[in-house]
Design goal:
Layout lengths: L1 E5 L8 E5 L9 E9 L3 H7 L16 E9 L1 H7 L6 E5 L8 E5 L3 E3 L36
Antiparallel strand pairs: 1-2, 3-4, 3-6, 4-5, 5-7
Length: 146
């Protein structure tokens, strides 16, 4: 899968597109096809080297995702009232800046994800002379918020 990784600590230019193995949902978890990922203060602090990755968490940044459940722990899905194909938002310990992300089912909630959001980027504004565009983790381009 495609993901954004932090190649070294520093400015937004340290965020680079990479290929990573697809994560697999474990017990009590779901696998989400990410349509959008939030950018928050801990993500920025992680990029600058001021927020260490929690033990056992992905080194891929991104603590908030929205997307579609692709698979997961059947028992946990059933107990939470979810099914494969549901649109959800989730809080995760990391890994949100990727095409796929694993989330604990207890940290997911149903939400409306605009179907257009699943197909195309919402913003293409250039932010630098390098031609990099606004952060759209789904399309995994060089990153920055408009």
């Amino acid at each position: 899968m495609k993901a954004i990784e932090i190649t070294s600590f520093g400015a937004p230019s340290v965020l680079q597109l990479c290929e990573r193995p697809s994560p697999v949902a474990g017990v009590g978890e779901v696998l989400i096809r990410v349509a959008a990922s939030g950018i928050n203060r801990p993500d920025v602090l992680q990029r600058t080297g001021n927020y260490p990755v929690p033990p056992g968490a992905s080194d891929i940044p991104g603590l908030e995702v929205a997307g579609v459940i692709l698979s997961g722990d059947e028992k946990a899905l059933d107990m939470a009232g979810f099914k494969v194909g549901d649109r959800v938002c989730a809080l995760v310990a990391g890994g949100g800046y990727a095409e796929l992300c694993v989330a604990p089912v207890g940290q997911c909630f149903q939400c409306r994800v605009d179907s257009a959001m699943l197909k195309q980027p919402r913003c293409q504004k250039p932010f630098s002379r390098s031609g990099a565009t606004c952060l759209n983790v789904l399309r995994l381009k060089k990153a920055r918020v408009c």
